[in-house]
Specification:
By secondary structure, this protein is α/β, with parallel strands linked by helices. About 25% of the residues lie in helices and about 25% in strands. The protein folds into two domains: about 210 residues, FAD/NAD(P)-binding domain; about 110 residues, FAD/NAD(P)-binding domain, CATH 3.50.50.
């Protein structure tokens, strides 16, 4: 056997060489991994096990899984993926850095071109650290979020106070609903929340800017604007009952929405210099390709940002199909 043939055989069975490393194990990442695996690609999924929706009791709008807890969706998806020998999942692991290999691999070999990315991974312990190489990378890390600084807000978040109106608006019923936020897009979000409740109060917490024209337009739709500073939220066992203002007034509510600040998790990509939008989300084409060939993004980490679970899963599946064709150099109609 020639040296070249021997090297190729070694690459085929190299335990640290993958066709794709999927970073993140939410609906986008797991969907991408499943579809890539079914295309007989060797896939490694790096799962931090710290999903943003961990506080959410039930997920909605996912066909055949409406009302299923998000952690149950993740469990089912992981079990389905792990049935395939081509798939590997690293749990409670994080990616420290993704590097692009230009010339030679770490061992001095001449095969960096076949696997142009090095992914450095930390585990729960030092023994769990890995350094792997991959032909492609899918970034599906999602977002971190910062909620308004109210003492009790975490006690209600995911149970009676939510961030996604399309996901959780239906359950709000006819009771009075709060929309709490400090961002400049509060007017548009108030219009959306108004689709699900006829009694909405927008709380700016003395921070968010709403013009007089916007406040007037909301008022015409029956949406009240409260500009006073919030002291805290009231309720029990996860059920919000009132928003208490600093002057002591209590405004009764039976549910509500909050506008967090979202921060895409992309720090480990710094060396790749990928294009991002003004909010830090990765910019992709319609098929999930980022500005660097071989790196793809799906789900909340990609522009325009937060999406329903089923939309994120679809984006992951689409990216997988495109990767399969891109690796072959095949142009498709997808």
């Amino acid at each position: 056997m020639s040296d070249e043939a021997g090297s190729s055989a070694h690459e085929a069975y190299d335990s640290d060489a993958y066709d794709c490393v999927v970073i993140g194990a939410g609906p986008a990442g797991l969907s991408a991994a499943l579809n890539l695996t079914r295309a007989r690609q060797r896939v490694l999924v790096v799962d931090s096990d710290r999903p943003r929706h961990a506080a959410t009791m039930l997920s909605h709008g996912f066909l055949t899984r409406d009302g299923v807890p998000p952690h149950e969706l993740r469990r089912i998806a992981r079990e389905e993926l792990e049935r395939y020998p081509e798939a590997e999942i690293l749990r409670r692991s994080t990616v420290d850095r993704v590097e692009r290999n230009h010339d030679r691999d770490e061992a001095g070999g001449a095969h960096a071109g076949a696997h142009p990315f090095t992914v450095r991974i930390s585990g729960r312990t030092a023994a769990g650290a890995r350094v792997v190489r991959s032909r492609t990378v899918v970034v599906a890390t999602g977002l971190r979020e910062t909620l308004p600084a109210l003492p009790s807000i975490r006690a209600y978040y995911g149970m009676s106070l939510f961030s996604c109106a399309a996901c959780d608006g239906y359950e709000q019923g006819e009771g009075p609903v709060a929309l709490i936020g400090e961002t400049d897009d509060l007017f548009a979000r108030a219009l959306l929340v108004g689709q699900w409740s006829s009694t909405v109060t927008v709380f700016t917490n003395g921070v968010a800017s709403l013009t007089a024209h916007e406040e007037s337009e909301l008022g015409d739709r029956g949406i009240r604007v409260e500009r006073r500073v919030i002291d805290d939220l009231e309720g029990e066992r996860g059920a919000i009952a009132a928003v208490r203002l600093f002057d002591g007034e209590r405004i009764p509510v039976t549910g509500g929405f909050v506008r967090p600040l979202w921060h895409p998790i992309v720090g480990f990509l710094g060396d790749l210099d990928l294009d991002t939008d003004a909010s830090g989300h990765l910019v992709t084409d319609r098929d999930g390709r980022t500005s660097l060939a071989g790196v793809y993004a799906a789900g909340d980490v990609a522009a325009p940002g937060p999406q329903q679970l089923i939309v994120a899963a679809g984006a992951g599946a689409r990216a997988a199909a495109i990767i399969t064709h891109d690796l072959l150099g095949v142009t498709t109609a997808h």
